[in-house]
Design goal:
single chain; about 230 residues; mainly alpha; 10 helices; globular
Length: about 230
């Protein structure tokens, strides 16, 4: 690799490490920025893996996979930006979805139709429970801490080991564990630090809910409907 390529890799890796640290430590406070991005990547994952499961294609390896993944990603990002309850439902949904996909990937089960459907069903259940029991704050803190920790550990893995980014995006849990228990332990420790810091620093901090669709569609001079 040329010196320019090495420099670019180091700069990109440093930016990803910084971003991962910010999400792990300040994910809840930066929620208005994190939610649309989260929605986009959830849509990208569920769309790309859906095509992979249904047609047997590699993750984001075909035009159809990219169209479905990118289209669903944009839709989820837009809905997350407009509606608070959809945004936090998607965060909760991603937790259930990722747990199922990660578990089956860890034990070596390929992503097929049944696994994908189970993951989608688990996502729907965790999304419902997140809203039903009003635990959005706790789910967001746990999820952003894990997401930030995954970004940090994944970036270090790709900088220090020949890990394919597409493979990591498809099965991050399996990739981390395949590299050894030390990497898995690092992921757990970084996520735990992020959770502890966020719970302590946001003890008396609550993010205001929003309904931007209602704000944009309210007639001039009229009163806005109550927030969702």
């Amino acid at each position: 690799m040329s010196s320019d390529g090495t420099l670019a890799t180091v700069v990109a890796g440093s930016m990803l490490l910084l971003l991962g640290g910010m999400v792990a430590l300040f994910g809840y406070r930066l929620l208005w920025i994190v939610l649309p991005i989260w929605g986009f990547f959830f849509g990208l994952a569920i769309g790309g893996q859906g095509v992979q499961a249904l047609f047997g294609d590699g993750f984001l390896s075909t035009a159809l996979s990219w169209v479905c993944a990118f289209g669903l990603g944009v839709l989820f990002a837009l809905l997350s930006y407009l509606f608070w309850f959809i945004a936090v439902a998607l965060v909760g949904g991603y937790v259930g979805y990722a747990l199922v996909v990660g578990f089956f990937g860890l034990i070596g089960v390929e992503l097929g139709v049944l696994v994908w459907l189970l993951a989608v069903a688990a996502g729907a259940v965790t999304a419902f429970l997140t809203l039903r029991f009003n635990v959005q704050k706790y789910v967001v803190i746990v999820a952003t801490s894990i997401l930030g920790a995954s970004a940090i550990v994944g970036t270090l893995l790709m900088l220090l080991n020949p890990v394919d980014p597409a493979t990591f995006a498809d099965h991050p849990v399996k990739v981390v564990f395949d590299q050894g228990w030390g990497w898995a332990l690092m992921l757990v420790i970084v996520a735990a630090i992020g959770m502890a810091f966020q719970f302590a620093s946001t003890r008396y901090h609550e993010i205001e809910e929003y309904n931007r669709w209602a704000e944009y569609t309210t007639a001039p001079g009229g009163s806005a409907p109550p927030p969702v």
